[in-house]
Structure formats: structure tokens, C-alpha cells
Amino acid sequence: MFHFRRRALGWIFAVLLAGPLPAAFGARAAEQAFPFGSDLILDSDPLYGSKRIPMIEIDDDGVAAIDLWCASVHGQATVGANSITIVAEPADEAQCSPERQAGDQNLLTALSQATNWRRDGETVELSGATTLRFRLMTN
After folding, report:
1. pTM of structure
2. Distance CA 117, CA 126 (A)
3. Cα–Cα distance between 69 and 54 in angstroms, integer?
4. CA 21 – CA 136 distance, rounded (Å)
5. Which is nearest to 116 in space by CA: 129, 135, 107, 98?
6. Which of left, alpha, beta for 124 (phi over 0: left; psi -120 to 50: alpha)?
7. Residue 96 and residue 86: Cα distance in Å, rounded?
8. H or E element, residue 18
């Protein structure tokens, strides 16, 4: 009888120990998945004289809304397990300073050259010729 209780307690302990693990792995996988439909804000300070910081949102179907330093554009994104391709329409010449217009063009170039992405919790990093770091908007 003692052997049976010891074995039963061992099984109960094993089940209790293993129970939360699948949920923990599922939560970790969700933290690593691409955050479709979420606003991602560029990890940067605003340009002098402005409060605006570029943002990007990519939906499940790949439609991308991109707010640059000055203008806003639409685009198409293809997101793989760790790869990304972004094709954005050209920014129109908004009534902004030449510095912000140049910033828009530089950011569009960097986005079009992004080839990989990586997520670490609330941070999404796009890498290519230039590395762009975005933060997940949580408010």
C-alpha cells in the first residue's frame, strides 16, 4: 500500500508540475509573434519643433499604415517567421520643413530595405541596411 501511495503522489506531483508549462510556453510564443494590428512607435525622440514620432501598423492581411515624421502613407507588408518586406507608396510633399521631408524619405528607404524582424516583448526590431527599433503601444 505504501508503494501505491508513493507512486500516486509522484504522478500527482508530475501532473501539477507539468500543468502550467504549456500555458507558459504559449504566452512566451505570443510575446514573440509579430504584433499584427498593433501600433508600433519608432524608438526615437521627436524632431526639433514637433511632437510627432513615426508609427507603423501592419494588419493580418499585410496592409500597412505608416505615419512618418511629416506625411502618412499606405503600403503592403509581407511578414514571415522572421522575415519582412515592406513596400510603401511614395510620400507626398507635405507642408513640412525640408528636415522632416528628408526624414520621411530616409525612413521610407530604411523600411523598404528591411529584410528581417525580431520581437522581444514590447520591442520589435526591423533589420536590413539600417536597424529600426519600434515599441508596441500599450495604452
Report:
1. 0.76
2. 4
3. 6
4. 26
5. 129
6. beta
7. 24
8. helix 2-18
CA separation for the pair 131, 65 (Å, rounded): 19
DSSP E strand boundaries for the chain = 40-42, 55-58, 63-67, 72-79, 84-88, 116-120, 123-127, 132-136
What separation in angstroms does the CA of 20 have from each of 7, 16, 133? Answer: 21, 8, 32
- In what side-by-side order are the strands of the sheet with 123-127? 84-88, 72-79, 63-67, 55-58, 40-42, 132-136, 123-127, 116-120
- Nearest residue to 115 via CA among 81, 69, 139: 81
73, 80 in Cβ contact below 8 A? no
Q: What is the pLDDT of residue 15?
A: 42
Report the number of secondary-structure helices (H) and strands (E) in the chain. Answer: 3, 8
Rounded Cα gap, residues 29 and 35, in angstroms: 12
Give the model's confidence band at 17: pLDDT under 50 very low, under 70 low, under 90 confident, else very high. Answer: very low
Q: How far apart are CA 73 and CA 34, in angstroms?
A: 21
Q: CA 91 to CA 70: how far, in whole Å? A: 9
